[in-house]
Amino acid sequence: MPCNHNNQLCPGPTLNGALTNTCTHCLADFLDSQRSEIKAMLDNHKTAWQMMSSWTKKLVAFIERLYEDQFTTHGCPSDFSFCITGSGARSEACPQSDLDAFIVVPKITQNQKKQWKNINLAVKKRLDDINDSRVKTLRPGKGFVFCTGGLNPLGMVTKKWMERNNRDGLIKKDGIIFDLTNTTSALSGLLEEYYRYPSDPKRNLRKHIVSGLQECAHAFGNPKLHRELVDEVKFVLGQQAIEFGSNTLLSRKRKQGLQAMQVAINDKNFQPPAPYSDIKRVKREFYRAPQFILKGLAWFYDVDEVSSLAQLSMLEEMGKLHPSRVVHFRKAMSEALRVRVASHIITGAEFDKVLSAYVTPNKNQSAWLRLNSEQSAMLEDAANSVRLIIGWANEFASVQGRTHGIRGNPFSEPLLIK
Ligand SMILES: [Zn+2]
């Protein structure tokens, strides 16, 4: 019996058994059914973090099935750990987030390398096809696919990305920046080179990959290989670094922590929106700055947790973040992230912009998510919290860069009630 899409051999949108004959549309149907489960959580007033961690698990399970399917047909080339980075590693992926990932393998032969490449290409193609069959018009070409900027097991970028970033001709013809199905030493070597040669022309290409290596989680395969990489990355980051301000005692990791905060403080994109602005960018204007600042604090105080929530509770437990400030971190992120999940589901794209409650959408905005008045009020409140948090980070960074005096931690002080 053919499936709903009239493909004779396709067993339909169930992922039991081999996927060899499962058609693109049925795979897309399956993913949509997973998204519906997140939609149900949204309707049941689950928190953003509950929805995001649930989605992260679903997407990992899906990718694992796609790989298993390749292994059944072609065999598994070698031992491996499939690692996810970015929002996946933080368990903060949203239903249309793209997937940042790489694979750690032991030392393998050229032939095994070739096998991995073919398998990665096949999975990439399947994801692309599924995405093409679904993504609507808001942001075509982006959705649940491998990272288009090279942080994927192939280390491959899209044509569009190449046109924008390949001014010096550093990227080879096939669009591969660095092979990211690789050994611990090759992967941590990328990190080492990034820090050792500040004027390396390839530095810009490495940047996204480097941040991924520093924030990764084991998804499936052999966790031992991931563990080895994490240890190696820690070793590289633990080395003494160049000065920050006049404070020379900072390790690379601490310096990186402060730099993450500087981004949150200085990058125009990551500032909260002006009060009562018509359009809100829920990821950029609400989530990013608190997330970077938390990550910065976590690195500074050597906290290994990667999810924002886990970092929050660990920093609070260690006395590095006062409970009166923790409240603002939650406020800054929670409703914005719930709205972000909703926007992904409603628009069917990785779409970040939403309309405030009192705005009448124009023709181009008709597909956008429009906030209700309660949500609008909550986001105004959240924007205030983002502003406060950025101010504290500014204080923290200037105190830590000091020559003399005590380098205290303003985040650990109770908030004064005005
Ligand atoms: Zn089908």
TrEMBL record:
Annotated ranges, domain Protein-PII uridylyltransferase N-terminal: 47-128
Domain of life, per lineage: Bacteria
UniProt-listed InterPro entries: GlnD_Uridyltrans_N
Protein name in the entry: DUF294 nucleotidyltransferase-like domain-containing protein
The organism's taxonomic lineage, starting at the top: Bacteria, Pseudomonadati, Pseudomonadota, Gammaproteobacteria, Cellvibrionales
